[in-house]
Amino acid sequence: MPVTPAAEKRRDFNLTNVDSFEAMSPWDRCITRGPGRMFPAGYNNAYQIVQTPGYVVIHHEMIHEARVIPVDGRPHVDKGVRTWTGDPRGRWEGDTLVVETTNFNDKGWIATNGASARIRGVPHSDALRLVERFTRVDANTITYRVTVEDPNVFTKPWTVSIPLVRDDDYRIFEYACHEGNKAIEHILRAARAAERNATDKK
After folding, report:
1. 91 strand-pairing partners
2. What is the distance in angstroms between the CA of the first residue and the CA of the last residue of the chain?
3. Which of the four pLDDT bands, split at 50, 70 and 90, describes residue 185?
4. Per 3-state DSSP, what percentage of the chain is helix, strand, and coil (rounded to 5)?
């Protein structure tokens, strides 16, 4: 991936400071899998795509996110509005659904799962722009392509392509991320104990 040296440095910090709350991914925090949420993870990789008049909704099993994508030609929200998942706008180019997402905040990672190799832990800035293309190539397959642009993090845009295969027998289950998720609580508690211990020794 064409990652800038500064972004590589931040990635290395994120991946080596596993006991720091500052380096925990938004996935660990049960916020979002991030812009790369279509990238495969170790489990819960299902997506349910629903088309309604004026919208396409993509329900992600992992972190139970639902992306509501207007396809009615409306403009993006004001540039001052920044969110974890950005502001998507869709349009049709023939049989391909093209989704452009902007207005991200600068708090997330491009990818959070270990399966994403070198890009795991790479931050993104608020200049991030994604262009996704969903093309149905047969009754059971959609070709998914995403181009990632972020001039503050990458030296040039890059593209990934993944096949999405229909499975009518698959059942999406609730991803109860916060249930029993004690990682942040324990890390913060341990950090406070270490600080007290250091103070007591002075």
Report:
1. 98
2. 46
3. confident
4. 20, 35, 45
Q: pLDDT confidence of 182, banded at 50, 70, 90?
A: confident
pLDDT band at 5 (very low <50, low <70, confident <90, very high): very high
Say if residues 100 and 129 touch (Cβ distance below 8 Å). Answer: yes
Which residue has 């503050």 as its token pair? 152
- Average pLDDT in the 95-112 region? 93
Count CB neighbours of 94 within 10 A.
Answer: 7
Count of positions (residues) in the chain: 202
Report CA torsion sign: 97, 33, 30, 84. Answer: negative
Tokens found for residue 130: 């994604």
- CA dist., res. 110 & res. 3, Å (int): 11
This prediction has a pTM of 0.86
pLDDT value, residue 201 = 78
Closest CA to 49 of 115, 99, 83, 102: 99
Encoding tokens for residue 46? Answer: 């299902």
Q: Residue 144 — φ and ψ, nearest 5°?
A: -105, 125
Nearest alpha carbon to residue 175 among 14, 66, 86, 69: 66
DSSP 116-173: GGGGBT-B--TT-EEEEEEEEEETTEEEEEEEEE-TTTBSS-EEEEEEEE--TT----
pLDDT score of 135: 98
Of 131, 172, 178, nearest in space to 35 by CA: 131
